[in-house]
Amino acid sequence: MAATIAITVFVIAYVLIASDRISKTLVALCGGGIVLVVGVVGADDAFFSQETGIDWNVIFLLFGMMIIVGVLRQTGVFEYIAIWSAKRANGSPLRIMILLVLVTAVASAMLDNVTTVLLIAPVTLLVCERLQINPVPFLIAEVFASNVGGASTLVGDPPNIIIASRAGLSFNDFLIHMMPIVIIVMIVFIAMVPLLFRGSFDVDPERVADVMSLNEREAIRDPALLVKCAIVLVAVFAAFILHSILHIDPSVVALVGGGVLILIARLEQRDYLASVEWDTLLFFAGLFIMVGALVKTGVVETLARSAIEFTNGNALLTVMLILGVSAPVSGIIDNIPYTATMTPIVAELANSMPDFAHPDALWWALALGADFGGNLTAVGASANVVMLGIARRAEHPISFWEFTRKGFVVTVMSIALSAIYLWLRYFVWG
């Protein structure tokens, strides 16, 4: 009976989240509340259990990074980078797109893709307005780059944070195992840009001169604060990288980094809290409780055993199954709830293969499928939804199918390259 309730609540919540008609946060909190009230899980299960409860490492890592970004936003550094990129491209729309794509990918790896989209998109609209060209192709290209670039680090994409917490993977693990394929996919994506967005690069020469007149230095509003932020960010990422030596969890590092910046920045509370997405944090909390109900009632274990039986314990087939299923499901639904649901299943699969030399390959297959699959549709990743909202408010709406037509091509390319990468790295070269 408890399993039936857990499944029913989760499926209904999933459908409502996918429909995007009701607030995802409201749905997740209501779902979590229902399984608590009816007794499927108790307070201890939801708030204190590592197996079935809220993953506080994920919540506080996101919170700390949001604080850091909230302070960094005050410096104007992101506007500076975007204007600098446009001028270095000599006003060429194609070169501007490529540079902004690169900036977005790198920033998404260091921060997170949602934050990067929020910071880069307004400047992109400004540059395109000066050039009098359609910003939609630029915004779409940037969100693709944010999802790809964010896959390369532990903090770049929310699914990675969930996976790292569940699997005990470090910041360095993601750099070593994810960065190579991300670089390959980005190179191929940039090569595809002229064809994928053909017809979007015609511009009036007079408008090019207008863009070249912009002074990027004027975008920096607080140079002293920028220096402080740079020092703290270097220290934070050094601690991420040295996790295996320092043994300090990334969540603690992010919280301490955010706290230090608050102390030295001397900003108003509304300034450094402006980038904290409370809805996102509450969404995660409700989602973890619903997933915990599936774990406690044995639903997850049953699914894992079914997958093992389907693949007969074949490691290569299991890795490809996880990758192949993760991409379309993440794209159609949303890669955050999908990843939260899959992590206990992948953990069961990894434990069931003691003879497999590279059990972490299952986690990398999940990460690649969820991160790259987020590009498939307009609702596949949080960054996509944020970008569509920005475009709509700027009166440049992006239709679901316009996004999906291009997203399908990018996702197929990304997953195909990922499959080859996983096969070569963990099964051929071993």
Give the helix/strand layout:
Blueprint: H1 2-19, H2 24-37, H3 43-47, H4 56-73, H5 77-88, H6 93-110, H7 113-131, H8 136-150, H9 158-167, H10 171-196, H11 205-212, H12 223-241, H13 243-246, H14 250-265, H15 269-272, H16 278-296, H17 299-311, H18 315-332, H19 335-351, H20 360-373, H21 382-393, H22 400-428
Q: Your description of this structure?
A:
The longest helix has 29 residues, at 400-428. It is globular and about 70 Å long. It is mainly alpha-helical and 430 residues long. It is built from 22 helices and no strands. α9 runs antiparallel to α20 (360-373), α18 packs antiparallel against α19 and α20 (360-373) packs antiparallel against α22. Helix content is 76%, strand content 0%.
Oligomeric assembly: single chain
In percent, how helical is the residue content?
over 70%
The dominant shape is: globular
Integer average pLDDT: 86
Residue runs with pLDDT of under 50 for 5 or more positions: none
Q: Provide the β-strand percentage band.
A: under 5%
Number of strands: 0
Find the structural class using helix and strand composition: mainly alpha
Rounded Rg: 22 Å
Largest sheet, strands/sense/barrel: none
Q: How many DSSP helices?
A: 22
Cα distance, first to last residue? 45 Å
- What is the H/E order? HHHHHHHHHHHHHHHHHHHHHH
